[in-house]
Amino acid sequence: MKIGVVGLGYVGLPLAVAFAEAGCDVVGMDVDGAKVAALREGRSHVEDIADARLTAVLPHLELTTRTVDLREADAILVCVPTPLTRNREPDLGPLLAAAGALADVVRRGQVVVLESTTFPGTTREHLVPLLEQSGLRAGSDFALAFSPERVDPGRTDYTLRTTPKVVGGLTAGCTAAAVAVYERVCDRVVPVSTPEVAELSKLLENIFRSVNIALVNELAILADRMGIDIWEVVDAASTKPYGFMRFEPGPGMGGHCLPVDPFYLAWKAREYDLPTEFVELAGKVNQQMPYFCLERAERALNDAGKAVRGARVLVLGVAYKAGVGDIRESPALKIIRLLRERGAELAYHDPHVPELPELGLRSAALPAAADGVDLAIIVTAHPSVDHADVIARAAQTLDLRGTTRKLGAGALQL
Fold it and tell me: How far apart, in whole angstroms, are the C-alpha atoms of residue 58 and residue 395?
């Protein structure tokens, strides 16, 4: 079987490599010529795909910027970005451009699967008419399905192989055809009745997390005002063996999915005259967390007799999660901008993010970067960082992740 993958980012590249490892010939297509050139040389930009692993499958992997090279693929998997506009509305531009280009190459008997997270109805209402500009009919001449990606960067306990794969086709035949494709790289494939079920299932997965994170974040703000340790509260509640799932407070949500998906569903729901107030509120609460973290930093400096303006502040961790270098939607970037606007002298350290060109910053080396700073703020707790040593060197440390609670070193908590 020959597999085509459109979009070689955090979702598409692991898919391409997995199918190549399974013995399939793979055509990986991306519009970014520099990215394609680097991949041809065995240089991966995705942390979950080591250079050695990529190099090992290069004989089975054709890398291109031309959509026409996908024509002979038996299945084409679309993994392009689905971001938000500045107004927090869905931006289907990359997806529609990819679908329009595929209309020139899709052929009878092919399987086309969308993996990009989006709102219910995207596959049927947007991909079908674009792909049918080919003169072929979706569901009869070629199979069309939606299968949401389930990628958690840096995670090793659940992989593409061991994570169940949901697939919903335009017809039962489409579903069966897509299932046959994914069975080559997934131990368990879960067929559902329609693309809309698959599309909404992905949003539910991420909105479930978004809502519960927002809940504990809002309680963290309340607990702060009440003088109650929110971490002790979470620990106590977590002793209940049923009916409770642990979520922890933090500086906000990052990555592509969690900060974006609630707004995709809220936007679509307005078409049905049903404002999803609960979902939208969760998004708003999580978006406000960097401002609460700024307030905590200001209070910490004020209690030490320091103004924010002119204070030396070190931000520890700018990736959106521990152990990876992904900065998409990272709350650390917002916190840095807010502190900078108030006149703080900012530096950051992140072993996975060597520079932040848009902010004109490079990662400062530890331990020297922590010596004598007025405030160190742990925004993302990378396991390779010696936080106890930072606490010993900085005048004050504010821990937004609760990672230092057991060190007994006196850091301030969120």
Answer: 51
Peptide bond into 259 cis (omega under 30): no
Q: How confident is the model at residue 409 (pLDDT cuts 50, 70, 90)?
A: low
What's the rounded Cα separation, in Å, for the pair 6 and 372?
49
110, 193, 198, 377 from 166: Cα distances, Å: 19, 10, 6, 39
Report residue 302 as tokens.
Answer: 């004020």
- Percentages helix, strand, coil for the chain (3-state, rounded to 5) are 40, 15, 45
What does the CA dihedral 171, 172, 176, 178 come to, rounded to 10 degrees? Answer: 20
**79 given a catalytic annotation:** no
Q: Are 315 and 377 in contact, with CB atoms under 8 Å apart? A: yes
Number of neighbouring beta carbons within 10 Å of residue 160: 20
How many separate helices (H) and strands (E) can be counted in the chain? 13, 15
pTM of the model: 0.90
Give the angle 193-197-198 at the CA atoms, nearest 5°: 100
| Angle (CA) 266 269 272, round 5° | 160
Q: Write the Ramachandran bin of 273: left for phi over 0, alpha for psi from -120 to 50, otherwise beta.
A: left
pLDDT at 125 over 80: yes
The one catalytic residue among 24, 79, 257, 293: 257
Phi, psi angles (nearest 5°) of residue 115: -110, -15
Instruction: Report yes or no: 47 and 153 within 8 Å, Cβ to Cβ.
Output: yes
Domains in the chain, ordered, with CATH? Answer: 2-193 (3.40.50.720), 230-413 (3.40.50.720)
